[in-house]
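Appendix B, Record 12. Input sequence as logged:
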Amino acid sequence: KITIKDLLTPILERGKANSKLQNKSWNQSSVWPPWSVREIDSKYRVIAEIIANLLENACKYTEENAQIGIHLFDSGIIVFDNGKKIASVEVEKIFRKGYRGISSKNKDGTGVGLFLARTLARKIGGDLYLLENDQDNQFYNKIDNLKKTNIFYLKLPIEQLHK
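Logged structural output:
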């Protein structure tokens, strides 16, 4: 058996190392919520794939000296950056299979990463969103001291993780 913490620790270490190599600032939760340190069913291992994709995108699409981070909350995980804001017209399009956003013009990619991440999230009873960065965002004030323009929220079926 494995925990979310077990799954995410090597991914976070890689994210931190990649950030440093690319002259980006790394920020992560120092506290692991109770749900993240209890054993999970094996079908939830895909959470690691989802988070790896989000962190890879954050590194790929932000400029040098950008801030990238991950925080765990009672209802899921957010991955954020303070790179160029994803345009409002793209908020849902970026989750379409094969769609590549405006900022991906000169970057390698296939346009399936976010599509696959959302598909996997929904397959396990969760979901993946790009949150509007404003005062109504439930996480905005919890990470208020950090710079962020793009906030991806992986909503997890917390109650089901341990059944």
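Residues 4-21 form the longest helix (18 residues).
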